[in-house]
């Protein structure tokens, strides 16, 4: 029900009684007083946004906001509209600025935490970029502009469950970890006293255990033959051969630099800052790998990276290069670059080599107490170097590399 007047008076407002339906008293120029059946009275302003769409905003409750104050607010809002500014968006921006000024808003604290972490993360990785991107995508739109001490555990549960619902379990794990660490930083810096992320694990789904797709031992000849026949990129072909002969992680190979290799000593020393376990890793090079490297050096030896990017030689090739090659060879769903490590580890185990040597070759941490105290590299000539040479000979016997 609407009662339209050119302008309201205090007498009219006081005389208006609640009805069975909401009553609207108009003061003109979009200002209305809404009277609910319960008797509550609230000011509303109808207006047209700069984009042409109709909208309505609250100007407070009566009598806390008087008729004169409501009219003054209407004037202020219409002044903003005359400047092409949406008053609702302007109000939100003012709120964000107040929160930012307090240094207590979640996104501000996330930026502080991120700035402290960037120098600690390994050079040559995209962790800084990827972590911030994940927060921008999955967290900030939902709770980014809230004060950190006002975000409830159920809100965090909703953030994480949204990722579960679309199968982004690994992304969820990372986001959970990032946000938990942001709260830890906030506690240390005195902005909050409680970390709601620490107790959520029990309410979340576990990530289904999966393994990187890889061919069986019986399918190795097919894989080696396909790599040898790959003619789309000599650079990528060499990379796939080296993955097969060294069992390093694809990212470690992509970012490999020529100054890390001693071809005379047949060893590749990967620095700690580029390793997942944050400790240096020595990779023995069988003669088949040395042959690949010597041929590759004729092509890219003048660059820093073994595999320089096509458009920017100061960066390595795309992280999709190796995987795309396997797809083009017909191994989609059957074998991925990281799966090569599973293939090599299985082969070495079937050849009878000690598990400690294999784990050292893969740069894996040993389980339990061994992982704490044992850091043996097993680089004596009769250990890993001999093991990888035997593997190289085995691969070469399938098809001449």
From TrEMBL:
The keyword DNA-binding applies. The keyword DNA-binding applies. This is DUF4102 domain-containing protein. It comes from Kushneria phosphatilytica. InterPro entries: DNA_brk_join_enz (IPR011010), Integrase-like_cat_sf (IPR013762), Integrase_catalytic (IPR002104), Integrase_DNA-bd_sf (IPR038488), Integrase_DNA_bind_dom (IPR025166), Integrase_recombinase_N (IPR010998), Phage_int_M (IPR053876), Phage_Integrase (IPR050808). Residues 210-388 form the Tyr recombinase domain. Keywords: DNA integration, DNA recombination, DNA-binding. Pfam families: Arm-DNA-bind_3 (PF13356), Phage_int_M (PF22022), Phage_integrase (PF00589). GO terms for molecular function: DNA binding. Belongs to the 'phage' integrase family. GO terms for biological process: DNA integration; DNA recombination. It comes from the Bacteria.
């Amino acid at each position: 029900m609407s009662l339209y007047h050119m302008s309201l008076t205090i007498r009219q407002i006081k005389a208006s009684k609640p009805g069975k339906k909401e009553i609207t008293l108009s003061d003109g120029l979009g200002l209305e007083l809404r009277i609910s059946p319960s008797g509550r009275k609230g000011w509303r302003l109808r207006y047209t946004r700069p984009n042409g769409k109709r909208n309505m905003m609250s100007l407070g409750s009566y009598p806390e906001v008087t008729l004169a104050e409501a009219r003054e607010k209407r004037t202020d809002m219409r002044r903003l509209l005359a400047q092409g500014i949406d008053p609702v968006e302007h109000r939100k921006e003012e709120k964000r600025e107040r929160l930012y000024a307090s240094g207590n808003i979640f996104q501000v604290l996330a930026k502080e935490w991120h700035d402290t972490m960037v120098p600690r993360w390994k050079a040559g990785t995209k962790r800084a970029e990827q972590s911030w991107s994940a927060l921008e995508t999955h967290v900030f739109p939902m709770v980014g502009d809230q004060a950190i001490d006002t975000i409830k555990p159920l809100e965090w549960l909703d953030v994480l469950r949204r990722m579960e619902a679309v199968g982004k379990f690994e992304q969820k794990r990372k986001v959970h970890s990032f946000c938990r660490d942001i709260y830890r930083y906030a506690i240390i810096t005195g902005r909050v006293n409680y970390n709601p992320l620490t107790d959520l694990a029990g309410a979340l789904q576990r990530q289904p255990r999966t393994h990187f797709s890889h061919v069986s031992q019986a399918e190795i000849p097919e894989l080696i033959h396909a790599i040898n026949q790959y003619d789309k990129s000599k650079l990528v072909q060499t990379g796939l051969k080296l993955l097969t002969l060294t069992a390093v992680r694809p990212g470690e190979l992509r970012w490999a630099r020529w100054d890390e290799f001693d071809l005379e000593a047949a060893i590749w020393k990967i620095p700690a800052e580029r390793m997942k376990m944050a400790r240096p890793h020595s990779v023995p090079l069988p003669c088949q790998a040395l042959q690949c490297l010597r041929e590759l050096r004729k092509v890219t030896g003048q660059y820093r990276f073994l595999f320089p990017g096509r458009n920017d030689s100061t960066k390595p090739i795309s992280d999709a290069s190796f995987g795309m090659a396997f797809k083009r060879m017909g191994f989609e769903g059957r074998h991925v670059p990281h799966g090569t490590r599973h293939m090599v580890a299985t082969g070495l185990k079937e050849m009878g080599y000690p598990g400690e040597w294999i784990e050292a070759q893969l740069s894996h941490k040993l389980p339990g107490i061994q992982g704490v105290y044992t850091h043996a590299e097993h680089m004596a000539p009769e250990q890993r170097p001999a093991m990888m040479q035997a593997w190289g000979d085995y691969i070469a016997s399938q098809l001449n590399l």
